[in-house]
Amino acid sequence: MILKKLSALFIAATLLPFSAVAENPPIRLVIHGGAGTILKQNITPEKEAEYKARLEESLKAGYAILNDGGTSIDAVIASIKVMENSPLFNAGKGAVFTNDGRNELDASIMDGKTLMAGAVAGVTTVKNPIEAAYAVMTKSPHVLMVSKGADQFAAQNGLTQVDPTYFKTDFRWQQLQKAKEKEQIILDHDDNKLAALYIDPMMYDYKFGTVGAVALDRHGNLAAGTSTGGMTNKRYGRVGDSPIIGAGTYANNNSVAVSATGSGEKFIRTSTAFNISSQVRFQNLPLDVASKNALKEVADIDGSGGVIVVDKKGNYAMEFNTAGMYRGTIGTDGKPEIAIYGE
Amino acid sequence: MILKKLSALFIAATLLPFSAVAENPPIRLVIHGGAGTILKQNITPEKEAEYKARLEESLKAGYAILNDGGTSIDAVIASIKVMENSPLFNAGKGAVFTNDGRNELDASIMDGKTLMAGAVAGVTTVKNPIEAAYAVMTKSPHVLMVSKGADQFAAQNGLTQVDPTYFKTDFRWQQLQKAKEKEQIILDHDDNKLAALYIDPMMYDYKFGTVGAVALDRHGNLAAGTSTGGMTNKRYGRVGDSPIIGAGTYANNNSVAVSATGSGEKFIRTSTAFNISSQVRFQNLPLDVASKNALKEVADIDGSGGVIVVDKKGNYAMEFNTAGMYRGTIGTDGKPEIAIYGE
User: Which residues pair with A161 in a beta bridge?
Assistant: First the structure.
């Protein structure tokens, strides 16, 4: 039996070109840290260096797992945790504030092999929301848990809890005050009082800051994850696309893994992540073309943002229709590539 | 001006075959009241008659609007409200109970012309959750609001509020007690304590009971809506597919309007509603074939349920992979067709 296997291997080796035998199957990790009006003139060189360092750390954390033969799901979690733990991004520590001065966090994750998925929305005490999403996926038969119930579930499953003040940063607190001032100005001067209650902070903000990761592991399996603090000054338990499987996150080995960032409502209304998956699956489109098509559908209803995509061959795309997107990728060769602005 | 119009009509009348002039553009309404282990031997003739009467009332409510030239969105809301107001269905009054003895309701609605969408999850005091979803769609820039914030938004927008006891029915309360007893039995006898915390009531229940409607109006516009009380004995703020745009509900004039019912998590993981829309759009499949394909993907991950679908020509499908689905349809001729069991 062993001899039979060895001789089969020998035949395969003589038939295949050398490189195909010598190389491992490809691995690929792609990350984003939010898309938006990110312009070089608005960012100091120091701040830019900070962002690049954190994106590189995120890429290396995921790469270490993939390169060791670990799973795409574990790589996605490791990459996202680095960004959640950094105050630079609108996810985990450094999340934006709701209208009533709270940090309400959303996250989701999906395994392209099994189509298992997990998500949480409106959590306030679990340190790493992406871990809560993973717990929902692996330790319950559910996909989405919201608000207090989700926090309770995370706590019961032993995930690190923090006082809600852990997530607070002065920068985000000032953003909330600014948003409220602008809201008051609009309320004072505009007849459309209702519209004023929902100023889109993206209009005033340099970046959105949602984070995400997609990965292909050596076993040929895809995974995707997304984590966010949502919208500054949000009310009424608003939930965006990040915890919505099919909108902000999707992974299926039959096509691609996707994580999205941008004006969440528009991404939900066009099921962005699943749309890209469908276009690749049914139309056999290249990843960048499918991504551009999906973002065009978002733009058609006045939305903007970006997506990262990877397929089973290690092909990938990082597309956005905003000025910039914090982004990076790393493949089999282990060399991180990082970019912030548009071309 | 009037003469000009009349002469144009006269020319059109002479050019077109008689039937095309005499008939208005087609209208179509399709509804469901949940899919599941619905077997004739388990339902008394009296109960069956009650269901049929309520389904017919729902169809006629939506038809009256469509036949008057009203919008598909208004027809969907009217149809769903009839079922929400009836204790027979697991939506609005008659919703199932959570583990802690509450009724937490979810609903969503989508306009296929504008891709506007609205949804609420975990509401407890708004009498008609489908109206709350519509308010989110039309009176906020958001798509999804959850828990207390969603209730607060509905109240501020003048929607009828009720005491949470309004939703309570003895039948559902007994179902919860039965589910808890079975949970205790499993806890006492099974090593897998975690699994025991999530007994799937669908295993014991004769029907799921989520309600939904899809419609085509005379203006050629599609709409879809879904409303549910979720799962008996659910915990941790669990949210199923009903309020998830792309999973339980989707409508786009470029393809179809869809409402789904069944094991919600599996419908989220395969983005059932958007999947059907994509298969019709990209593969040009007939509605019943696209529906069967999507339900096959749900079955592949051990899920079951049903879908209703309508397109711009008035073609429609009512597919399910369970024993039965409460369902009905009404078209241009105004004759309601109602069915409960499989063939």
Answer: A126
Sequence-ordered alpha helix ranges (H) in chain A: 2-15, 18-22, 45-67, 72-85, 129-139, 147-156, 170-189, 193-196, 264-269, 272-283, 287-300
A140 at the B interface (CB within 8 A)? yes
A210 in catalytic set: yes
**Chain A interface, mutation test: which of B239, B241, B280, B284, most A Cβ atoms within 10 Å?**
B239
Residue type, A145: M
CB contact under 8 A, B142 and A236: yes
Chain B residues close to A143, C-beta within 8 Å: 264-265, 268-269
Residue contact A149–B237, C-beta within 8 A: yes
Q: Judge whether A233 and A98 are in contact, CB under 8 Å.
A: yes
pLDDT at A76 over 60: yes
A22 pLDDT exceeds 50?
Answer: no
Q: Roughly what angle, to the nearest 10 degrees, separates helices B272-283 and A272-283? A: 40
Domain assignments of chain A as residue spans, ordered by start? 25-341
Of A152, A198, A274, the CB nearest to B140: A198
Residue of A145, A245, A269 lying closest to B237 (CB–CB):
A145
What ipTM was predicted for this assembly? Answer: 0.90
pLDDT interval class at B191 (50, 70, 90): low
A25-341 folds as Glutamine Phosphoribosylpyrophosphate, subunit 1, domain 1 (3.60.20)
In angstroms, the CA A35 to CA A197 distance is 24
Residues of A in contact with B274 (CB under 8 A): 246, 271, 274-275, 278
Q: What is the pLDDT of residues B252-299, one digit of tens each?
A: 999 999 999 999 999 999 999 999 999 999 999 999 999 999 999 999
pLDDT of residue A19: 45
Is residue A23 predicted with pLDDT exceeding 70? no
